[in-house]
Please model this.
Amino acid sequence: MKRAAFHNLGCKVNSYELDIMRQKMEKAGYSIVPFEEEADIYVINTCTVTNIADRKSRQMIHKAKKRNPEAVVIAVGCYVETYPERVGTDSAIDLAIGNNNKARIAELLDEFLAQQDKADRRTLGGKTMTDLTHRPPYEDMQLEDPGHTRAFVKIQDGCNQFCSYCIIPYARGRIRSRRPGEILREIRTIAEKGIREVVLTGIHVSSYGLEWDAQTDNVRFDPHKSGAFLLDLMEEIRKIPGIERIRLSSLEPRIMTEAFVKGIAAMPEVCPHFHLSLQSGCNATLRRMNRHYTAEEFMESVKLLRRYYEAPAITTDVIVGFPGESEAEFAETVKFLEAVNFYEMHVFKYSVRKGTVAEKLPIQIPEPVKGVRSDVLLAMTRRQSQDFRSRFIGKEEELLLEEIIETPAGPCWRGHTKRYVEGYIPCNSPVADQFKAGQLVRGTFTGPAQGAPGLMLQACVESAVKIG
Model:
């Protein structure tokens, strides 16, 4: 039996698609082994969101070929789409597969292996790539066993936003949405296997369904229409037996209209945890980024969520050192971030992406300046995150148990609340021997989990009222 190893880089969509590819290869008779082991087939699911991601993709491709020069190395995904000529001349890559052909990986590999002449075996081109400059059909994938306690379910692909710093619309193509029936069929399958929480994910989830009534590829974002499609989908998902939590991945802040927030707040299964991508708190910077909203409009979205939810967990992304970001503009962002008071912020130093508008913008910020600004925001998010978690000390919460990990206090079950606050339950606690991954357990948070980075609260299992 041939051995296949996988390595994933990038976003949750990539993670979902890697699970699909692994599933396809297992069905085709391949034995799945860790990437660190010698294998006959190596699959690297690449990312191109930053120059660093490009470099890591190349490194993993070459590491695989070095580990076993006789192995077939398959490069898949965004790096392949963005740099077809570079991929075509890389001797470490035997087979390249684009973003709209991942579900065909076993079939394409069989075709590749069936060819006798190595010089003719490279299939980069029309065979494995799709023209993503126009909207291709949605490539449906059905995940049968996520292998995790929560399942990521891809509902959408592509992006029409064209932020000035981002290459993803070119790597992923125009927006295309998955039909509700296929989504519901997948969720029913995984719910029957014990999954209690699903995370709806995509490249631009807020655009879900927008293209269905359009006659053009250049569909403009419409928060009212998109919100309606998502609400309808979630209403159907919550009817599926066994599904107790629905989580949304990164959202466009403009989707948070009164109607949408009121709609999701009426569904108790929807987790009060919302990732609204901001990037900057300065309007001048947002305009250069081509972000289509103002800081004031973003704040209105946050206020709406806090009006309908008690202490919603609101997280975001922020880029520091974008071209032209002056000290005054950065100070404006700092002030705005303090005012919003996020649960968590993912802070990124701007990285030039060739082929984007931002590459040619004047006043590129020096790396040392980016580093200083990044440190300021990282210190802020550590403080804000701790403050948010501390609100729940002494309160009863429900954890979705995920795994047992070692801590300074000994082995503990780790889980997350609906707000994605991490909690620990010591394995020597009463009734802990009845636990298993995927269960929902109620308990009272008693205080910080000492010596456990990022795990700020400890669940008191003695007050557990629900196991199941």
